[in-house]
Amino acid sequence: MYEGKFPHKRYRLTHQFLEKHISKSESILDLGVENPFTEVMLKSGYQVKNTSGEDLDRNTSAIKESDATVVTAFEIFEHLLSPLTVLESIKADKLVASIPMRLWFSSAYRSKTDLWDRHFHEFEDWQFDWLLEKAGWKIIDRQKWTNPTKKIGIRPLLRWFTPRYYIVYAERA
């Protein structure tokens, strides 16, 4: 068990979900470049390799050529124009993926300074489930959690009660 401090609630909950389903003896391909959660997984004893920042909508070779037994995708599918293509490219039999959920009271995320940090999709849970099933995955477990903020207002209040993140563990159907 990783004993370090988690900078975000979602890191702690994601880590707990990962430990529930994935053995440290398995190799992981984490979609996306190395990030703070990669470090959490490595310090926890997981064998993790990340993709290199290639445009996964156009180039899935890193996924197709990987011999990892597990693929993780933490908050990446919303950035892809065609997540179905990526999901179908995965050779591993296990997938742990999380997404930020679509919030009815807030528009999709769009960075004004980073052209890559934008959301093409913000899914409802049923939409993400359907996407996974269409790509040949069977969902074994799922969890949702909220992302409260310490701001004042109607939207911050709604974030205390409305789930923001959704994570699934799926296996090849």
Automatic annotation (TrEMBL):
<protein>
    <recommendedName>
        <fullName>Methyltransferase</fullName>
    </recommendedName>
</protein>
<dbReference type="InterPro" id="IPR029063">
    <property type="entry name" value="SAM-dependent_MTases_sf"/>
</dbReference>
